[in-house]
Amino acid sequence: MLRFGLHYGIHFIVPIIVGLLFFKKNKGFVILVLLAGIVIDIDHLFANPIFDPNRCSVGFHPLHSYIAIAVYIGLLFFKKTRIFGIALLIHIVADVTDCALMGS
């Protein structure tokens, strides 16, 4: 239950908190973009099985690969793409937390 709560809390609660605390302008839009970071889970559709609760997404799925994560970090360095980088990295943090708690 802890694993489930942390994983989905980071996916859905953290973007709202980040948007409210750090983005005073357009916070509604920013929160929607941060929540939309979940869209990278589309790469799960290419896995067999599509969902495996005992599989770590990080390093397995293409949009969760270490190269993709490096690109997401790179997005932070440009003002126009920073919010997308933050959204995608929040997603990765959620998945890393899930992987760390796997088996507990």
Structure in words:
The longest helix has 21 residues. 57% of the residues lie in helices and 0% in strands. The termini are close together. Helix 2 crosses helix 4. With 104 residues, the protein is mainly α.
List keywords for this structure.
mainly alpha; 104 residues
What's the short version?
With 104 residues, the chain is mainly alpha-helical.
**Largest β sheet strand count, sense and barrel closure:** none
Derived from helix and strand composition plus strand pairing, the structural class reads: mainly alpha
Question: How many E strands?
Answer: 0
CA distance, first residue to last residue: 9 Å
Summed up, the helix count is 4
Percent of residues in helices = 55-70%
Percent of residues in beta strands? under 5%
**Low-confidence residue ranges:** none
Mean pLDDT: 95
Strand/helix succession: HHHH
Looking at the structure, what is the overall shape? globular
Tell me the Rg in angstroms.
14 Å
What is the topological layout?
Elements: H1 2-22, H2 27-35, H3 66-75, H4 82-100
